[in-house]
Amino acid sequence: MPVYAYKALDDRGKNKNGITDAESLVAARQKLRNSGLFPVEVQETQAETRISSRQQVEFIKFFNRVKASDITVMTRQLGILLGAGLPLVTSLNALIQQTTKESLAKIIVRIKEDVNEGQSLAAALSRYENVFSLFYINIIRAGEASGTLDVVLNRLAELREKQQALAGRIRAALAYPVFMFLIGSFILIFLMTFIVPRVTQVFEEMKQALPIPTVILITVSDFLKSFWWIIILLIVGGTIALFRFTRTPKGRLLRDRVILAFPVFGDLKLKVLISHFTQTLGALIQNGVPLLSSLEIAKNIVNNSVIADIIQKAREDVSEGRDLASALATDGIFPPIVVQMISVGEQSGELEQMLFHVAAAYENEVESNIVAMTSLLEPVMILAMAVVVGFVVTAILLPIFEMSQLIR
């Protein structure tokens, strides 16, 4: 069924924009009139009619990508609507009217059509696997199978909100140090390429021996002024080459190993990955997804090849009869406390609850580590900038002091 974007006026004369589906343009206009809207402009969306479903998703992802926060809001709203007793199709239709993101509204329209034709919600979502993750789709499938779709949607929304809140706190904590680094670097480059050359030109014209710090300062300044384009080319070329290399399986594995081996940041990244993995695995098991399937899904959504390989090996070991705790302990990447808590969960029959405890503990630890790290980064950056500026000032003042002594 075609999808139409419309601009209309309501009974109060206010502008309304949205997406609707209908058999034809005439039917779309009539549908809007029946809903109390006066259509001003109605046109068929080209992205929906000329591009296949998979191509459409790629198009949306590149030009107008659906944000994770939009999916979370949609999930929460759908859970509330279903919990209020509304049928699924009616709830999806309400979402279409409420969604302000046009790209997401188009996808919901297609999902509603598939559900209306008899498909399950999970099957309809699976057409848009680049928008809805495998984890998301399987949670929905489990909710449909158990008849508790509204409860599952609310749990899923809570889980996504926690993960996004953690990511937001990490970004907020690192924003100030990164901003200070960029501003400090810009000021330093401006100082070395524009200010220092004019000051040191006087020293060069004296034709006298200069102190070593001054010589170093003049050499660095001349290099930056003359070959700045080489530096930019090296940075851009190196970034592109590194990006392409990390797109390969070998490059991705090497990158992830280096990240985990990096001092301080590697440990922090591992804690974030463990929190994400245990939270995801716990949610899947809680909603009735078998352990082997849950491990497969968790492996696919963990954004680290090293951890994904460990989960894959653990899945193979579990399929052969080993318990999950001992399977995860084989490579020594997972901390002993995590392995012990998972073992206790398996023995007590409350594995999902223990996984949630692990995730919560590591979330708190990540937050405290972020606060401690940023509190140390700020004085370290200030000290580093002070050392650099102090070197520049010293290199400029030393020749001046020598000249003053000669005048005496």
Description:
Residues 46-63 have low confidence and may be disordered. The protein is built from 17 helices and 3 strands. The protein is mainly alpha-helical and 408 residues long. The longest helix has 57 residues, at 149-205. It has helices at 25-34, 46-50, 53-63, 68-83, 88-98, 102-116, 121-125, 134-146, 149-205, 212-246, 249-261, 265-286, 291-301, 305-319, 324-328, 336-348, 351-407; strands at 3-9, 15-21, 38-44. Helices cover 77% and strands 5% of the residues. A 3-stranded antiparallel sheet has the order 2-1-3.
What general form does the structure show? flat
Say what the CATH topology of the largest domain is.
Answer: Receptor-associated Protein
Strand order of the largest sheet: 2-1-3
**Main sheet record:** 3 strands, antiparallel
> What is the H-and-E element order?
EEHEHHHHHHHHHHHHHHHH
Task: Calculate the mean pLDDT score and round it.
Answer: 83
Please give the alpha-carbon distance between the first and last residues. Answer: 94 Å
* CATH architecture designation of the largest domain: Up-down Bundle
Total domain modules: 2
Q: Summed up, what is this model?
A:
The protein is mainly alpha-helical. It has 17 helices and three strands.
Write the layout of secondary structure elements.
Elements: E1 3-9, E2 15-21, H1 25-34, E3 38-44, H2 46-50, H3 53-63, H4 68-83, H5 88-98, H6 102-116, H7 121-125, H8 134-146, H9 149-205, H10 212-246, H11 249-261, H12 265-286, H13 291-301, H14 305-319, H15 324-328, H16 336-348, H17 351-407
Antiparallel strand pairs: 1-2, 1-3
